[in-house]
Design brief:
Pathway: Protein modification; protein ubiquitination
Radius of gyration: 22 Å
Number of strands: 8
Strand content: 15-25%
Distance between the termini: 28 Å
InterPro entries: BACK_BPM_SPOP, BPM1-6, BTB/POZ_dom, MATH/TRAF_dom, SKP1/BTB/POZ_sf, TRAF-like
Structural class: alpha+beta
CATH topology of the largest domain: Potassium Channel Kv1.1, Chain A
Family: Belongs to the Tdpoz family.
Pfam family, one: MATH_2
Largest sheet: 5 strands, antiparallel
Protein name: BTB and MATH domain-containing protein 43
Number of helices: 12
Order of helices and strands: EEEEHEEEHEHHHHHHHHHH
CATH superfamily of the largest domain: Potassium Channel Kv1.1, Chain A
Length: 291
């Protein structure tokens, strides 16, 4: 199939919401040609509203056992963010190797298991859920909230024997981002990114403290929010913090003849001249190629 072409699965119900898988067999975006891109899509938003969920995607072998697995970080599915996943789910060459090793193809078809966990149930599902056995009290879940909400807690002492008299001042970071960074550091679980603004602020913090995995999650989230009104700011952010994936997404968006013409007539083009000269040169070269 051509790059950008997609297929959708049938819908399935989890946590009072309808979901489906969206697969791009030859990648979603030119930079992901040669990959399979895979996303979880919230299919019932109009009738069931927003949802928060995470998922695990596994390629099954002929014995119906996972031979390759990728996680989709917990995220909020809302009106302008109905799908979430990974554009680099698996390279074609790696998939070929898996097929030879594990005999993934069954009846000439590839079987993918999608294990979805909805972390916020709809109101009508809440009573039934309340009757179930409570999960263990673990740091990635309720214990993390307990630690965060305890007055006067010294987070440093959770995993360190350092003196409780030591204070660390953190500037240029709001409480929402600070909480998300601490959650990621202390629980190894990705925070919920509810908006492009949150992703931008969290990316800056992740780059500052060299949290590369968190930085990549923020990049991927921002790639889905590249639009004409914000592309100049997003590209400047990508340049400043060395975000190659986000930079490529912005350049690809602007490389479209229609988008490029509109952008060159906007204020964003002037901003790009001063803060991102290398990106501007790349766009100029692409314009010459187009014409």
């Amino acid at each position: 199939m051509a790059n950008g072409a997609k297929v959708r699965s049938g819908t399935f119900r989890v946590g009072g919401h309808e979901w489906r898988l969206v697969c791009y067999p030859n990648g979603n975006g030119k930079e992901y040609e040669g990959y399979m891109s895979l996303f979880l899509e919230h299919a019932s938003h109009e009738s069931t509203g927003d949802a928060t969920a995470k998922a695990q995607l596994s390629i099954l072998d002929q014995a119906w056992k996972p031979s390759y697995t990728r996680d989709i970080a917990k995220t909020r599915f809302f009106s302008s963010n109905l799908s979430w996943g990974t554009r680099g789910f698996v390279k074609h060459q790696d998939l070929d190797a898996l097929t030879k090793k594990h005999l993934n193809l069954k009846d000439d078809g590839l079987t993918i298991l999608c294990d979805v966990t909805v972390t916020e149930l709809r109101t009508e599902d809440h009573v039934e859920a309340a009757a179930t056995v409570a999960p263990p009290f673990g740091l990635p879940g309720q214990l993390w909230e307990a630690v965060w909400n305890t007055k006067g807690v010294d987070v440093q002492n959770c995993r360190s024997s350092s003196s409780d008299t030591t204070l660390l001042r953190v500037d240029d970071m709001d409480a929402e981002v600070f909480k998300a960074v601490l959650q990621f550091i202390y629980t190894d679980s990705p925070p919920m990114i509810v908006s492009a603004s949150m992703a931008e602020r969290l990316l800056v913090a992740a780059d500052r403290y060299k949290l590369e995995e968190l930085k990549l999650l923020c990049e991927d989230a921002l790639c889905w929010h590249v639009e004409m009104s914000s592309v100049a700011v997003t590209l400047a952010l990508a340049e400043k913090h060395n975000c190659s994936m986000l930079r490529a997404a912005c350049i690809q968006f602007l490389s479209s003849p229609g988008n490029l013409e509109s952008f060159m007539a906007s204020d964003g083009f002037e901003k790009l001249r001063t803060c991102c000269p290398s990106a501007l040169m790349e766009l100029v070269l692409k314009k010459i190629t187009i014409y």
